[in-house]
Specification:
homotrimer, 205 residues, mainly alpha, 8 helices, Gly_transporter (chains A, B, C), transmembrane (chains A, B, C)
Amino acid sequence: MSPLLLTLDFVGTFVFALNGALTAVRLERLDVFGVITLGMFTGLGGGTIRDVLLDALPPATFVDWRYLALAAGGGLLAFLLSRRLDRLAVPIVVLDAVGLSVFAVLSAYKALDMGFGVVQAMIVGTVTAVGGGTIRDVMIGRIPTVLRSELYAIPALIGAGCASAAYSAGYHGTVAALGSAAVCFVIRIVGVYFGLDAPRTRGHH
Amino acid sequence: MSPLLLTLDFVGTFVFALNGALTAVRLERLDVFGVITLGMFTGLGGGTIRDVLLDALPPATFVDWRYLALAAGGGLLAFLLSRRLDRLAVPIVVLDAVGLSVFAVLSAYKALDMGFGVVQAMIVGTVTAVGGGTIRDVMIGRIPTVLRSELYAIPALIGAGCASAAYSAGYHGTVAALGSAAVCFVIRIVGVYFGLDAPRTRGHH
Amino acid sequence: MSPLLLTLDFVGTFVFALNGALTAVRLERLDVFGVITLGMFTGLGGGTIRDVLLDALPPATFVDWRYLALAAGGGLLAFLLSRRLDRLAVPIVVLDAVGLSVFAVLSAYKALDMGFGVVQAMIVGTVTAVGGGTIRDVMIGRIPTVLRSELYAIPALIGAGCASAAYSAGYHGTVAALGSAAVCFVIRIVGVYFGLDAPRTRGHH
């Protein structure tokens, strides 16, 4: 992985850990270790599932201490920020969208680098992107965001699809990755901002 | 895997996805993508856990696009059926029993084909059979069926046991598989129909 | 693994299964198979996650029938004990602390034996120790103990750290393992007894 893409992966891990831990802080029932633990699960969960699906065990999130340190650091920062809780609703959504975008694209790249097909790259990109937040939600007893309203899995799927298309066309580099991540990020943020929801089942109408 | 057994595995994936997604539809809180996502988790979750336990990574459910397509298709069908929701209680139970039976038997076969012992075949058959539904229930915040009343893990264990016994006696074929699945299916349906429960702890008497 | 360490691993599996199943019994909503199933998930879950992280698949908890039998036996014993439920609050806490200590130390040893570093040994020891109880809590719809108050992950981390330090200093044997497990056990029990909690976020003050 190029230095810039590795940096992006670190950024994704950190912001997801920060986001998961901030979510924990808003619950207001967890101590400092609970906050850090939830941050680590959120930051490292998606990448661990990715490496199981790609048969890339032991997972990079476990072998490379920098992932562990960044996830723990994100959790600790969330705990320290907890006095400013009332201002954190927007950052939580933005951080989550950043992590979603970065993980969708980089995991699709990893799958393609390992020789998997485009379908697998898109699936693993999406699963990695939504995995950390899903583990976070299951652990705190919420219906996972990926199941609830608002576009969540779809931006990840589109971002992973853009990355896979660019990769297949020979663009493996940083620009294609950043562009694909930006597509995912914009769709996610627009979806949240305008409260765009996909069609629902009868019960909601 | 013989064509007929592979077809059965596809059937199990599809009906579990359909079942998981119908369960989501009954919740009446999910949009179309949430319904499809829950269907995919339900249809593919058990087989993924199976392939982790058997060290058969990357999982067949991930590498073979037909599993992915069938699981997504089952979820989409459930969304389209959601207007007829009031008639779906019986199909949900029957589809679940079909998936339970098929996965218990085929996963036991897979373990035996890979050289694992009979005990491992029975365990992995049971875990695969109950895995998808357990993930579904955890994600929507319900106590998993496998823990609640009604015979659920036991029919799967018996079906996987019949398949293992037949396999050990030299019957690897379709008839033995269908027969073992039928045993599991009948026990499960009889259990649901008559409300048969295993002995309970004091609190219930 | 030396016979005594293997015995300790069996003890950890049994007491975690017993603990998870007793927790289920206190819920008073599960039948005998639900109780045994939850006991098996609790007893075998941590070790299974450990072997995924260490790329030691198929997991020892699945391949070795003795783990399966001990976990099922622990669950069955819990069901049989369920008439004496009112006396079980203390044993549940003590059994959980025993399993926590044993798994933290032995899993750190396993990682070091396989050539992983000290950081990985401490992480995998902690994850294995808290893994079974976390799966138990998620399945019954509780916020996991590892996130809630009371020192839980930290004693495991310290125990795994002691074991790693001793191992690195050349002490691979039973005494170092028992000593490290004792450190974890004492910290956990003292934490529960005195209700020691780590610093909390604003909401609790």
